Amino acid sequence: MLSFNNNQILLKRRPTGWVTPDDFELVQTPMPTVATGQVLIKNQFLSLDPYMRGRMNDAKSYAEPAKLGEVMVGGTVGEVIESQHSKFAIGDQVVGMLGWQTYGLSDGRGLQKVGSKSNPSPIPLSVWLGAAGMPGVTAYAGLFEIGQPKAGETVLVSAAAGAVGSVVGQLAKLHGCRAVGIAGGPEKCAYVCEKLGFDACVDYKSPEFRAQLKAATPNGVDVYFENVGGAILDAVLTRMNNFSRMPVCGLISDYNATEPYGVRNFVAILSKRIKIQGFIVTDFMSIWAQAVQTLAGHILAGRIKTHETIAEGLENAPTAFIGMLKGANLGKQLVRL
Ligand SMILES: NC(=O)c1ccc[n+]([C@@H]2O[C@H](COP(=O)([O-])OP(=O)(O)OC[C@H]3O[C@@H](n4cnc5c(N)ncnc54)[C@H](OP(=O)(O)O)[C@@H]3O)[C@@H](O)[C@H]2O)c1
């Protein structure tokens, strides 16, 4: 048994409204003992994702709430350091859901091997938590399975400089569409156009937002990939074309709100015959492997560009998480452990 300690972040209390660092607790626990059929992993990166805010609530949802006093849920990538499992060896690089902790014990279920000592991952390990991982598959599945864009159509995506949105626009471009982003601030919009190759990006914080959205979508919007909801959704509804599609992936503007904004321009859905479908990425397990293969191919070939905002050390995960919910991240928000 290894003699050092494990650092963990537990959910201490359930927030009302905005999350605070006091909702979490950093603890040190003894290293777990590896039993037959188990592997011990040293996590190298922790993914911080908006869905974690929902798990902090004790509310009925598509997934069980995180439990008080237990390690916060979260995606991780790391290296096997001890194995009593026939399918994993020391040095294997694995993606899993081992939570906010520096070491994780697993029975192998839900653990995806992405490299080994002799055959390391072809892409940086952290990217398996971003464009080649859950956020990338979310972008791929929502855009193609629900949005069903055709070449030449206009695809609009909100939170365009983030983990999911940045992949949506780049996939839309590769598909021959006009890709338009919505993001917070001129720096993010410049990144979306200049680095990611979107055709246009509109700053929703600008007082000219509605006029700029109109100018950026001269032929209207055929697919709106919804990540934020609220007032942005109402503005976008005015630009949607007849028979357009709207995959509803996330509504981040409401996640910390005590009074949800709702949809005020609901009539547009009827008059424009818009098809709207919410989805959870796990609805698309049947295409997961194919999506990952396509995304990893695009990343390796440089057709999909990635960017990461990395917080250093587990102890900084709570503030980085709150920062991500407020838009402090560019690209995928991670913690280096
Ligand atoms: N359905 C699923 O299975 C699934 C899976 C993964 C993610 N999601 C959803 O996809 C969305 C994006 O997730 P992500 O992981 O890619 O996160 P992300 O975009 O990397 O980070 C969140 C971004 O949301 C934006 N934001 C925060 N508050 C906002 C507000 N009030 N109005 C507009 N934008 C706001 C911020 O960007 P700005 O600086 O531009 O405001 C922030 O950077 C989230 O809604 C998430 O819940 C859903």
Give the SSE layout.
Layout lengths: L4 E7 L12 E7 L8 E9 L3 H5 L20 E8 L9 E4 L6 E4 L5 E4 L18 H14 L6 E5 L4 H12 L3 E6 L2 H10 L4 E4 L5 H8 L4 E5 L4 H8 L2 E9 L18 H5 L3 E4 L9 H13 L7 E5 L4 H9 L6 E5 L1
Parallel strand pairs: 8-9, 8-11, 9-10, 11-12, 12-13, 14-15
Antiparallel strand pairs: 1-2, 3-4, 3-6, 3-15, 4-5, 5-7
The chain binds NADP nicotinamide-adenine-dinucleotide phosphate.
Question: Could you describe the 3D structure shown?
Answer:
By secondary structure, this protein is an alpha/beta fold. The protein contains 9 helices and 15 strands. The chain is globular and about 60 Å long. It has 2 domains: 5-130 and 306-336, Alpha-Beta Complex (Quinone Oxidoreductase, Chain A, domain 1), CATH 3.90.180; 135-282, Rossmann fold (3-Layer(aba) Sandwich). The protein has helices at residues 51-55, 134-147, 163-174, 186-195, 209-216, 230-237, 267-271, 288-300, 317-325; strands at residues 5-11, 24-30, 39-47, 76-83, 93-96, 103-106, 112-115, 154-158, 178-183, 200-203, 221-225, 240-248, 275-278, 308-312, 332-336. Strands 3, 4, 5, 6, 7, 14 and 15 form a 7-stranded mixed β-sheet that branches. The chain has a 6-stranded parallel β-sheet with strand order 10-9-8-11-12-13, with helices on both faces. A two-stranded antiparallel ribbon has the order 1-2. The model has no long low-confidence stretch (mean pLDDT 96). Helix 2 crosses helix 8 (288-300). The chain binds NADP nicotinamide-adenine-dinucleotide phosphate (NAP).
Listed once per kind, the bound small molecules are: NADP nicotinamide-adenine-dinucleotide phosphate
Radius of gyration: 20 Å
Q: What fold name stands as the CATH topology of the largest domain?
A: Quinone Oxidoreductase, Chain A, domain 1
Count of spatially separate domains: 2
How far is it from the N-terminal to the C-terminal residue, by CA? 21 Å
Say which CATH homologous superfamily of the largest domain is assigned: Medium-chain alcohol dehydrogenases, catalytic domain
| Percent in strands | 25-35%
CATH class of the largest domain: Alpha Beta
Spans with pLDDT under 50 lasting ≥5 residues? none
Structural class: alpha/beta
What is the chain-wise order of helices and strands?
A: EEEHEEEEHEHEHEHEHEHEHEHE
Largest sheet: 7 strands, mixed
- Give me the CATH architecture of the largest domain, please: Alpha-Beta Complex
Percent helix among the residues? 10-25%
How many strands appear in the DSSP assignment? 15
Shape descriptor reads globular
Compute the average pLDDT. 96
The helix count comes to: 9
